[in-house]
Amino acid sequence: MTAPTVSSSGYARDALLAAASRMAPLGVQLASTPFLLANLSPGAFAAWTLTMTTINLFLSADLGVVGIMQRYHGIALGRGDTALGGRITATVLAVLGTILVVLAIAGPWISDAILHVVNLPAGAADEAGLLFRHAGVLAALQLTALALSSYLAAHSRFLAVAAASLIARTALAGCIVLAVVTGAGLRGLLLAAYADAVVALVITAFLCRKHLVGEVRGLARSTELSELWAYSWRNQASAFGFIAQRELDVLMAAVLLPTVALVSVSAVAPLAAAVSLAPAVLLTPLFTRLSVRAGESLPAAAAEAGSAERSWWSLLLPFGALVVVILPFASAAWLGPEVEDVVPLTALLSAGFVLSLAGSVRGMAARAVGSPGLETRAYVVLVATKIIVGTVLTLVFGVYGLAAATLIAAASFLISLTHATRKRQIIGRTPLPPARLAIGTALLALLCGAAAATVHQMIDGRLAQLSLLVVIALVGALGAFWVYRSSEQPHAP
């Protein structure tokens, strides 16, 4: 077994496939939001959103074992050790099976705990409790599917990963529509969530059948377990931090704000996070490459990570500018008048998410070379800042304070991670963006922002607004690509 080599065109293909697989769940969630807002009561919609938030948080509570799949299968490829890969998979599946049993038993307590701290109307509490009781089981099933997808990604089978995700999300979308059309309400949506998880698990297991049948023989050795555990628990905390930065807004709004404000945050925050953090999925193949390089040589992995970050910043700057100036108006048109404070909320939240995205390559490099604790500590700083500063600002300024705290927390995360990775010499100092890139980005943001604001103010009709904003976004994307290419360093991620 030899380590794969990937050309620039091959990387682009794999990145797009990884993006399709990772964005499909968020795409269904965002596409269904206006539909659910129009057909569910505010309390039922809030309950469904909180259930998705709970599942996402549980997806990070896997003791870090899903995160080790892609890294250590990459290490096994770099070393040419098929038996190691089989032991990794067996150990991960054993841990996930235990998690499934524990969360199934703890379901009633999980439900009671959530209902105790969130503000939901009395009429929605019973069905919401049913959703919350099953959130842990749903998360465990999704985790198992994600673990098998990570095996596929480690072997650069990104087409298979994308196919599994798209098929499962198609089943989810169809079941959501069926649940609403038939009047099944939250119980029908629960069945839709189960359809999504089961389909994803069955398909990924089928795609991994040769590995599961032919290579998975026994658990990791005692000498390997200590290394795996040291990596996994730090990776667990890091994964929790990434999920927390997306979900804390909804959770804090559920505790600190009334239902009307919770509906606004529940609708806006997932949309802002999905769009703003979307480029992170393009780095999935990079993690495979860095893990393989780490199996060969740590200095080689660090050198490749530094090269990737230079290209990453050149790409991220124009992307972030377009998101901040266009997405707020697109959110208002997409979500409709049922949601209040859309434009300022989206602008503040998207700016915070884009800022945290700037540290993605550094965090990925730290995990690939076996030091996920650096990213973990940075996420601890982010979560602590968000909770402490966010609570104060929310009590004083309401939803605007909560959104502003996202920006402050993201800045604290980036500063902490940058300092730690420089100190450990994983990635050195990132050069400032070229003047051409900075000037081009500023002009692009000014023109596209002015056009988007004009459409928002002058054009009636949500469909017409969305259509024009899509055109502006496409034109802006072409401009961003030109700005990026004109200033691109001779290093490709």
Set out the fold topology.
Blueprint: H1 8-39, H2 42-59, H3 65-79, H4 82-105, H5 107-117, H6 122-154, H7 158-181, H8 185-207, H9 209-214, H10 222-256, H11 259-276, H12 284-296, H13 298-335, H14 342-357, H15 360-368, H16 372-397, H17 399-423, H18 435-458, H19 462-487
Helix pairs in contact: 1-7, 1-11, 2-6, 2-10, 2-11, 3-4, 3-6, 3-10, 3-12, 4-6, 5-6, 6-7, 6-8, 7-8, 10-11, 10-16, 10-17, 11-13, 11-14, 12-13, 12-15, 13-14, 13-15, 13-18, 13-19, 14-17, 15-16, 16-17, 18-19
Task: List its traits.
493 residues; mainly alpha; 2 domains; 19 helices; 84% helix; disordered N terminus; disordered C terminus
Summary of the model, kept short:
By secondary structure, this protein is mainly alpha-helical. It has 19 helices and no strands. 84% of the residues lie in helices and 0% in strands.
